[in-house]
Amino acid sequence: MRRRSRFSGRGREGVFVMMPLLRNNLFQRVVVAFAGIPVLLWINRMGGLFFLALVLLLSLVAIFEFRRLAEHRAHPPALSLLLLLTALIQLNFYFRVFAYWEAFLVTVMLLFVLELYRKEGSQLLNLGVTLVGLLYVNLTFGALLRLRMIGDGKAHAVAAEGTGEALVLLMFVCVWATDILAYFGGRTFGGKFIRRKLFERLSPHKTWEGFFSGIAGSMTAALLCASLLPYCPSDMAMMTGLLAGVTSPAGDLMESMFKRDAGVKDASGLIPGHGGVLDRFDTIMFIAPMIYFLAAYR
User: Which of 264, 285, 280, 294 is CA-nearest to residue 70?
Assistant: First the structure.
């Protein structure tokens, strides 16, 4: 007769305890953050082709996810074409073989001509969702790439070397602080002072208390960055902190608008606890162009 191990019961209990924890959304978010943030910081530190590779990967996944959303409402072109166009646009943002408007002009005209030979669905809807997706994904991630390039001699703005790295780090820290404080501030104080929701039609769980908590977190993070980071002047840090805190919900709401129209919860399940690239980087995509213009033309 086989002897039962005295540890078997404990092992089962441990498995039963761990399973709900592994399925917990907050736990998954924390694990992904601990694994992903150091990699992201290292890539930002390296810059150059490393950062280009990151942006290229994110934009390719994002256009894949957007096409999946668009398929619920229209008939977008083949995925291979959208991936190719996205890759060429992002590479042009870095190497600048053509002027940016020329690259987008060629893209738009190509899509118009190709739509002449397609018979599925409405041509207006097909072109509309395709152009929205290409512009949304490529302009926002292109702005992130150009922001990192500030100070390396390739970007429009003339700045000291290391400025782009500091600005990208500042933006990410402010966005993270906004997300964390908004989440816990909303859970703790949501509805206790202001009963009206922030934007109930698109995101019924967002509260004004969470919104103001996010702004406080972003401004605090900006102050810390201004005191600790080189090439991060106080005025730029505070403007970035304010922009990140105030406009972060807009990026999230815009992505929620797309997902609700498509009738899905997440853009994909690529990142455990977060959804897809569009779900995780929606705020960065919305804020990066504003921070780029702020840095390049201030």
Answer: 264
Q: How many beta carbons lie within 10 A of that of residue 52, not counting itself?
A: 19
Q: Is 90 exposed, middle or buried (0-12, 13-18, 19+ CB in 10 A)?
A: buried
Q: Mapping DSSP to helix (H, G, I), strand (E, B) and coil, where does residue 73 land?
A: coil
Rounded to an integer, what distance in angstroms lies between the CA atom of residue 175 and that of residue 190? 20
The rounded distance, in Å, linking the Cα atoms of 146 and 210 is 31
Number of CB atoms found within 10 A of residue 205's CB: 12
213-to-117, 178, 243, 244, 246 alpha-carbon distances in Å: 52, 8, 14, 12, 10
Tokens of 159: 């700045």
Give the model confidence (pLDDT) of 279-294 as tens digits: 899 999 999 999 999 9
Picking from 30-34, 68-72, 165-169, 283-287, which range would have the lowest pLDDT averaged per residue?
Answer: 30-34
Helices (H) and strands (E) in the chain, counts: 11, 2
CB–CB of 95/177 below 8 Å?
no
- What length is written for the chain? 298
Residue labelled with tokens 């997440």? 266
∠ CA 217-279-80, nearest 5°, is: 145
Indicate yes or no: pTM above 0.90.
no
Bridge partners, residue 199, by sequence: 203
pLDDT tens for each residue of 216-264: 999 999 999 999 988 888 999 999 999 999 999 998 899 989 998 998 8
Q: Are 63 and 83 in contact (CB under 8 A)?
A: yes
Q: Is the dihedral of CA 84, 86, 89, 91 positive or negative?
A: negative
Ramachandran assignment for 151, one of left (phi > 0), alpha (psi -120 to 50 degrees), beta (any other): left
Residue 163 lies in a domain: yes
Contacts of 274 (CB under 8 A, 6+ apart): 28, 29, 32, 280
How many domains is the chain partitioned into structurally? Answer: 1
- Domain span at residue 186? 25-297
